[in-house]
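User: structure tokens for this one?
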Amino acid sequence: MSMPATPVEVQSFPISHAGGPSPGADARGATQPSRSFVSALVRLSREPLLHFTLLGAIIFGIDGVLHPPAKDEKVITVTKAMRQSFIDNFDEDKERAPSSEQLQKMIDSWVASEILYREGKALGVDRGDETIRDRIAFKMQLLIFDQIRVPRPTDEQLKAWFAENHARFDEPERVSFYITPPTDQATAQRQLDDIVQQRESEELQHLTRAVLARPVESLAAGFGEGFRDQLLAMPEGEWKLLQSKDGWHVARLDSRREGNLASLDKVRDEAARIWHTDETRKLAWEAVKRLKASYQVRYEP
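Assistant:
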């Protein structure tokens, strides 16, 4: 059944886990400076959004922020907070604690990962690597989202937004119908004759599919405008020959349900949530555009 699309909700994302990284996280040595720096940014985020201009400086050194170099690149420190993080993440239900041997294996695994990261970075293997680039860009995205604080909309704001976006909440007109696979006109006509005389083959019965509660507005994209118009003009319960953009079909309209316009009073909470999502995304994109202003984008011919 096709349901109305609902935008994905964007929430504030934590920049770092309290108590250190999880065993599978992209954690590096000397994480405390990073958390302190990010904490400072979070405090700044409570000021007006003009503080996003600071992100212009952040993006140039984002890798250094996310993975600050240790004073001694050959020293790897496993902090008490880090060990506690391994313990906390060992069992999601917090019912079991790792044994000393299990804890040491998790630490050894993290240390090995840290060594490989540092050695690889020293060799420059991260340069040109799309995976690493995407991971850093994604972390930067989370950092930007975490700076955004969107207050609840006023009643006037929500009403104005709902007037422009009510289609996202309206219940569309829907139809349910049966349809045979596309074929040529002559074959489809023989299939129709067999269906009407109730002598269709088991194979045709098996291949005939039911389309349930399909939004009318999606029919043109899936089958073509001509098919949509013919289907809607059919009487319910009667098999007909119809042509779609893929070929000829035998179809039967089973039911048609009228749509309903949404009322703000009935969807106010959901509307406020989606408004908040839209505003957060809009402000995040504006922040990225401000960062983009300091760059020059060139396209090779």
